[in-house]
């Protein structure tokens, strides 16, 4: 956000008195200074987000909100535009950090070959494996797991169905899952 506007008009010399009046409680000066800052921010951020034009307005709003919330931290000895740019850079860095994390986790779907998305028909082997594992459990644990984890009943519903207390169902599920984990460990 350069302080020198085309035509030699110094943006900072117009902004600083406006901002100082805004900090003193002048609402009209506050609105006017935010409009001027927003206009400059849009240009500043458009150049830096040329590949992400949809993010510009969100980042402008995030920066303006941060300016509003942090206005008490402004040092009157510094140029307002330098303070604004520092906050905008932090917001921009936050955006890149968020996008970087998200984009590393997810591959765009358009870049994936269609054959990778195809699902093989279920040959039933998973069901057979699950049945074999469940057969290794005591009946109470097997029943509690089937009711809560496979049939999707709540603990209260499973307790009513099995004729047991909710505590007993919880204990049986916990013990059964722990035993299943031991069975599948290599």
Sequence-ordered SSE layout with sheet pairings:
Blueprint: H1 11-23, H2 27-48, H3 56-69, H4 80-105, H5 114-117, H6 125-135, H7 139-150, H8 155-162, H9 166-184
Helix pairs in contact: 1-2, 2-3, 3-4, 7-8, 7-9, 8-9
Structure description:
There is one protein chain. The chain is an all-alpha fold. The protein folds into 2 domains: 11-108, RNA polymerase sigma factor, region 2, helix turn helix motif (Rna Polymerase Sigma Factor, Chain: A, Orthogonal Bundle); 125-184, Winged helix-like DNA-binding domain superfamily/Winged helix DNA-binding domain (Arc Repressor Mutant, subunit A). The chain has 9 helices and no strands. The chain has helices at 11-23, 27-48, 56-69, 80-105, 114-117, 125-135, 139-150, 155-162, 166-184. It starts with 10 loop residues before the first helix and ends with a helix. The model is unreliable at 2-9 and 111-119 (pLDDT under 50).
Main features:
186 residues; mainly alpha; Rna Polymerase Sigma Factor, Chain: A; Arc Repressor Mutant, subunit A; 2 domains; 9 helices; disordered N terminus
CATH architecture of the largest domain: Orthogonal Bundle
CATH class of the largest domain: Mainly Alpha
Spatial shape: elongated
Helix percentage: 55-70%
Whole-number count of domains: 2
User: What is the structural class?
Assistant: mainly alpha
Provide the succession of SSEs: HHHHHHHHH
Strand composition percent? under 5%
CATH topology tier name of the largest domain: Rna Polymerase Sigma Factor, Chain: A
Distance between the termini: 60 Å
